[in-house]
Structures are given as structure tokens and as C-alpha cells.
Specification:
3 helices, globular, about 30% helix, about 120 residues, alpha+beta
Length: about 120
């Protein structure tokens, strides 16, 4: 988890304020001041330099938003997200699999678009 800009950029606001063909305009999303990331090394490759993937999955962001609303403090919400993803869903407790993908503009840069973490057997 690394700090992110506290507000939307002008370009992001312009995109969100575009007309909608499918119904009334909605309020802009709440900006989460964090970027969630997975950092790891390949277990089967001792020479692995490590990987750092930005998380685009909605779940950690929604967990942060919900905990902030429930508990009222950003540090507590941040700690709750870290506890969930590092402890409860970490590789010691769970068999973590990341769904990854790229974009046309950055074909060699992978991002996490989902997490599957069943219990270890």
C-alpha cells in the first residue's frame, strides 16, 4: 500500500463528468488516497528479482471505504486492509493466486485484477 494523490486529476474529473448514454449522471467516486500493490518473489526461482503489481481489483478499495465509513479514521481503515490482505489472506494462511493482465498502452507491465486465496490444505 503506497500513498496516492488525495484528489482526482483534472483528466480523471473530465472523464467522470462526460455525458452518460444510459441514464442520469452519477456523483464522482470517492477518491481513495492509497494505491494497493502486491510485492512478491517467485518461490521456484531463487534468482527472481521480485515483482511489484498494482491492484486494480475493487475489493481492497471497497474494504478501505467501508472501514473508513464504519470506524471514521483513515489510519484504522488502512490497518484493516493491511491485516486482511497480509494476515488473513497472506501466503502463510492461504494458497494465493493472482489474476493478472496488461493494457494496450503498457503491454509489458502486469497488474493484479483479481485475487483467489483458498485455504491451504
Amino acid at each position: 500500500m503506497v500513498p496516492d494523490q488525495p484528489g482526482w486529476s483534472d483528466q480523471q474529473l473530465a472523464i467522470m463528468s462526460q455525458e452518460n448514454l444510459f441514464g442520469p449522471r452519477k456523483n464522482p467516486l470517492q477518491k481513495i488516497p492509497w494505491t494497493f500493490r502486491y510485492r512478491f518473489r517467485c518461490a521456484d526461482n531463487p534468482a527472481c528479482p521480485g515483482h511489484d503489481l498494482q491492484v486494480f481489483d475493487w475489493e481492497p478499495y471497497e474494504l478501505y471505504r467501508g472501514q473508513l465509513e464504519k470506524k471514521g479514521h483513515s489510519d484504522v481503515a488502512r490497518a484493516d486492509v493491511l491485516r486482511k490482505y497480509n494476515d488473513e489472506m497472506g501466503c502463510i494462511q492461504r494458497n494465493v493466486h493472482l489474476f493478472v493482465g496488461t493494457t494496450i498502452s503498457h503491454p509489458k507491465q502486469f497488474s493484479c485484477i483479481g485475487v483467489y486465496a483458498p485455504p491451504r490444505s
